[in-house]
Specification:
The chain has about 200 residues and is α/β, with parallel strands linked by helices. It has eight helices and six strands. The protein is globular.
């Protein structure tokens, strides 16, 4: 039909966290804890004791997390396949970076560009728990509490397995939360129609 507009099909929104989901801030953070606090801690030990307990002072931990993003060259990708996987997912999803990172936006955006991480929108929220109010169809995060809160809103979450969430997820995995060992699993799940509108 001539002159009739065809409505564009809107892609479902995939909201993806940055810290410890895309950007491995844990490795440089543990290096800072070793250097500044003299505590030799392995990433795996964070399953028994959270980083808050390891540092002991919330203000000090806040400063250390800021210091990590002050040196973005020290931050590797959680998985080297993330840029390829997100590029593949971008054909089916609108990808929103949804983060409460302490890194300033310009630095984080440059880090994403330097690592060829594709996305359609960048959104910073004041608190991690604010993500539960975000309008997205599927979320990828590493924070168990955030995943549980999003799940309670009847939304799907892929929880990237990390030492600090694995034990909790084994005790109780909330409805709508899927624990994934690596990003390749996220790619397979997200390309299945069960996670798309």
């Amino acid at each position: 039909m001539i002159g009739k507009k065809v409505a564009a099909v809107q892609k479902p929104i995939l909201a993806v966290d940055i810290d410890s989901t895309i950007a491995d801030i844990t490795t440089p953070l543990l290096d800072l804890i070793r250097r500044d606090l003299g505590k030799n801690v392995a990433k795996e030990e964070m399953a028994q004791r959270g980083v808050e307990e390891l540092v002991g002072d919330p203000d000090k931990l806040h400063r250390l997390r800021e210091l990590v993003w002050a040196d973005p060259d020290s931050i590797p990708l959680v998985d080297p396949d993330i840029p390829r996987i997100l590029a593949a997912l971008q054909s089916k999803y609108e990808i929103h970076i949804l983060t409460a990172t302490l890194g300033d936006e310009a630095t984080v955006r440059q880090w994403l560009a330097d690592h060829n991480v594709p996305y359609d929108k960048y959104v910073h929220v004041p608190l991690e728990t604010d993500k539960k109010d975000y309008t997205a169809d599927v979320f990828i995060d590493d924070n168990y509490v955030v995943a549980a809160e999003i799940s309670a809103r009847n939304k799907r979450v892929l929880l990237v397995k990390q030492p600090w969430n694995e034990g909790l997820a084994k005790i109780h995995t909330p409805r709508n939360v899927t624990l994934i060992d690596e990003w390749g699993e996220a790619e397979k799940l997200l390309l299945q129609s069960m996670l798309r509108r």
